[in-house]
Amino acid sequence: MTRRSAAAILAAVPMLLLSPKAMALIPDDDDEELIEKAKANRKSRLQTEKVAEKEYAKTGGFADSEVVAVQVAVNKLAKSGEALAAGDLPAVAATVGSDAWVGEFQKASTGLSTNEDAKKSANAIFQGIGALESSAKSGSLQEAKKNFVTAVSALQTWAESAGIAASLKGL
Fold first, then answer.
1. How many CB atoms sit inside 10 A of residue 109's CB?
2. Mean of pLDDT values over 133-144
3. Prediction pTM value
């Protein structure tokens, strides 16, 4: 052992004896700065993920109000189909006869119909919905079923022509 190494060891001993807390590990839950930093990082990461999710929803068309209106129309027609299967014509008339969703669906179909095939199919949907409502109100179950099939077939054709069939559930 050289004089220099011995001097270094002797110089280090008092420092080790005088500052034992400097050698201790600080538990994470006692370090307020570290906790605040971790919370801030997590909050920032959540904000970034939220923005990314919104962007994904927009690109997938799920946040688009027009697609939402079409999905509502699909759901209403499905509900009226269930009522038709049960033979409940007043429920069919009530479901199909509400103007709010039909009006929103008309606006959406006008905006989403970018070609002539889609526009023709959209007209067929609304003719089918109107015929379904009138046959349900008149009490003709067979006619209502026929008009239901016409409306749903036109809706499927229109969704394919408009290019949104993949975005709809239950079609």
1. 25
2. 86
3. 0.59
